[in-house]
Amino acid sequence: MKVVVPLDLSEVAAEAVPRAVDIARGLGDELVLVTVLSRRLKSDLAELAETQNTTVPDMVESYLKSVAATAGDVPTSHTVVAGAEEADALIGFADDESIRMVVMATHGRSGMERWRLGSVTERVVRHSEVPVLVVPARKLLKRRAG
Q1: What domains does the chain contain, in order, with CATH numbers?
Q2: What is residue 64's DSSP assignment?
Q3: CB-count burial class (<10 Å; 0-12, 13-18, 19+) for 106
Q4: Which site among 8, 26, 27, 79 is 20 to 30 Å from 117 CA-CA?
Q5: Angle between helices 39-51 and 56-68 in degrees, nearest 10
Q6: pLDDT tens digits for the chain (146 residues)?
Q7: Contact at 8 Å (CB) between 7 and 71?
Q8: How far is CA 66 from each of CA 72, 76, 108, 131, rounded to the nearest angstrom?
């Protein structure tokens, strides 16, 4: 079985990794790191990739490898999924694989920003066939505010 962690290359999304590592270790499962390479993510990363003289897919691949290296003794793999909409792609991925659980962080958006951008986490929670553990990114948000 597998424990999946969706990552969008943000610090907030990475907050779920230590919790997922602990869960995968305890269950004897594989940890799978997943990034949905959507148009929005490509657009968000295009300028950074250009300044680093690389491509967005190569940047994502490098990031996932570096996060996988932090999992210690937990068997870890990573994959990039193409999809126009992140939540749908993640739900489809979880349905197609032998996934025990999805562990993901919430970005902590509220009000108009949440309404405008939507919530990938909320949509995955509502529509996933597998359990979803949501890790609040409160510590990171507090560090930024303080």
Answers
A1: 2-145 (3.40.50.620)
A2: H
A3: buried
A4: 79
A5: 90
A6: 999 999 999 888 899 999 999 999 999 999 999 999 988 888 889 988 999 999 999 999 999 999 999 999 999 999 999 888 899 999 999 887 789 999 998 865 555 444 444 588 888 888 999 999 998 876 555 555 55
A7: no
A8: 12, 11, 25, 26
